[in-house]
């Protein structure tokens, strides 16, 4: 089983308990990875279809296996968390970490980061 997909992600579902951010609403969670999408191969290759995995027209660097986007749930959760939380929390960072925060934001916006990489990056700037 891969990551759980949080289908109804909202900021008001997040709780801060003893300094730890927690998810307070678990009724819209499942473990079903998204189906792959058909797309054209390119202008020079007519009548060619390929399977991709994407979120809002951003193609993801994950595999399509048996028509399922393996790793989609983790990417979708990062996408939603970025949209609802990080854009607010990481807005206007202190000058001494602004370059690192911008790098994190760019990677989140491109969905080119894993949860582990995000965690490591945030820890690194926490002690700067």
UniProtKB/TrEMBL annotation:
Protein's name in the database? Protein kinase domain-containing protein, cytoplasmic-like
Which InterPro entries does the UniProt entry name for this protein? PKDCC
Q: Which gene encodes it?
A: LOC102809382
């Amino acid at each position: 089983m891969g990551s759980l997909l949080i289908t109804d992600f909202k900021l008001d579902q997040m709780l801060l308990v003893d300094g730890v951010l927690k998810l307070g609403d678990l009724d819209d969670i499942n473990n079903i990875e998204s189906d792959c999408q058909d797309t054209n191969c390119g202008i020079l290759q007519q009548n060619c279809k390929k399977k991709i995995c994407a979120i809002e027209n951003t193609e993801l660097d994950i595999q399509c296996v048996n028509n399922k986007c393996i790793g989609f749930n983790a990417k979708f959760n990062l996408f939603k968390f970025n949209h609802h939380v990080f854009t607010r929390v990481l807005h206007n960072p202190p000058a001494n970490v602004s370059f690192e925060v911008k790098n994190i934001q760019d990677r989140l916006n491109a969905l080119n980061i894993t949860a582990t990489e995000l965690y490591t990056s945030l820890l690194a700037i926490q002690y700067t």
